[in-house]
Amino acid sequence: VLTGDRLANAKLVVNAIGSIDSLWADLKPEEKLAMIRSMSEDDRSVLYVGDGINDAPALAAATAGASMGLSGASASAVHAADIVIMRQRLLDLEWFYRKSVATQNIVKQNIAFALCLMCFAATPAIMGSIPLWLA
Fold first, then answer.
1. Member of which family (predicted)?
2. Is the same domain home to 52 and 80?
3. Which of 13, 38, 42, 90 is least enclosed, having the fewest CB within 10 Å?
4. Among 63, 70, 61, which Cα is nearest to 89's?
5. Can you tell me whether residue 105 is helix, strand or coil?
């Protein structure tokens, strides 16, 4: 967790969320941006969640940026984000994650099905049993 909030406040949130490995608090926007770039250079996927005007550079630099709350978020944060969550609920991130995993699985299944179908259709075409255009 990277945050500009005070350490005591950040610890309360991290304890409520649970299963957080590390916490950096009292960070300036340019420090958060530098850390995100550093993590991205290490081929790590970075999700950044923010809603303020100072979050826009970090949202743009992250692998995926999410802006929380359309009404409370700054226009620059909404513009820089890949995902705009309409409500101020962190639990919506979990829903997005589950949906993205499910979508990814469906895409993989479709690709596997198409490849299998092509292999089965191409075999008779190669042997000359059916015209190639029909395969």
1. Belongs to the cation transport ATPase (P-type) (TC 3.A.3) family. Type IB subfamily.
2. yes
3. 42
4. 70
5. helix
How far is the C-alpha of 82 from the C-alpha of 23, rounded, in Å?
23
- pTM assigned to the model: 0.71
Same domain, 50 and 105: no
In the block, residue with structure tokens 């179908």: 117
* CATH number assigned to the domain comprising residue 26: 3.40.50.1000
Q: Which of 9, 105, 1 is nearest to 49 (CA)?
A: 1
The predicted-structure confidence for 30-48, as pLDDT tens digits, reads as follows: 999 999 999 989 888 898 9
Residue 13 CA to residue 46 CA, distance in Å, equals 19
What domain count does the chain have?
Answer: 2
